[in-house]
């Protein structure tokens, strides 16, 4: 996050990133659907849920013995994993072609994925809207 941006907390940032990821996924699925009859077209997948998890970092397992490091070039093992910046990754699916024309787009699967992603995106958008409503109420609340 840039230094000049206002932070409304980790939850708001996570929901914004989830909404952005759902939008990128929607665009990739729509592109797959639009090219369903393009000979040789390879479908694209977008992976953002893993990026959301990586953005949160990972606490160390309290039952595991962590390797202590005392030099910057040593690799810590078993400790906390620091949060990573959110980054959506798109990959081309080179799996087997199902069709005679060399395309690997299955319209039924793409439509099902589009429906699931639309529901996910709408839910994240609604949760983000609720967070902003709470913040607005907290800011504008008057003491009587």
Task: Please describe what this structure looks like.
The chain has three helices and two strands. The protein is mainly alpha-helical and 144 residues long. Helix 1 packs antiparallel against helix 3.
Distinctive features:
3 helices; 6% strand; two-stranded antiparallel ribbon; 144 residues; mainly alpha
Helical content stands at 40-55%
pLDDT below 50 for ≥5 consecutive residues: which ranges? Answer: none
In quaternary terms, these chains amount to single chain
SS-based class: mainly alpha
| Total of DSSP H or I helical runs spanning 4+ residues | 3
Count every beta strand, where a strand is a DSSP E run of 2 or more residues. Answer: 2
Morphology call: flat
Quick rundown:
This protein is mainly alpha-helical. The chain has helices spanning 10-34, 49-56, 107-140; strands at residues 44-47, 89-92.
Topology:
Elements: H1 10-34, E1 44-47, H2 49-56, E2 89-92, H3 107-140
Antiparallel strand pairs: 1-2
Helix pairs in contact: 1-3
């Amino acid at each position: 996050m840039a230094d000049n941006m206002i932070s409304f907390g980790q939850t708001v940032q996570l929901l914004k990133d989830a909404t952005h990821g759902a939008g990128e996924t929607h665009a990739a699925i729509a592109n797959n659907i639009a090219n369903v009859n393009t000979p040789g077209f390879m479908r694209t997948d977008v992976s953002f849920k893993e990026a959301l998890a990586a953005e949160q970092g990972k606490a160390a397992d309290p039952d595991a013995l962590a390797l202590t490091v005392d030099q910057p070039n040593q690799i810590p093992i078993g400790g906390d994993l620091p949060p990573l910046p959110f980054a959506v990754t798109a990959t081309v699916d080179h799996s087997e072609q199902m069709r005679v024309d060399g395309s690997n787009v299955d319209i039924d699967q793409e439509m099902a994925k589009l429906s699931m992603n639309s529901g996910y995106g709408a839910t994240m958008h609604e949760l983000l809207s609720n967070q902003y409503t709470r913040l607005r109420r907290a800011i504008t609340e008057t003491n009587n």
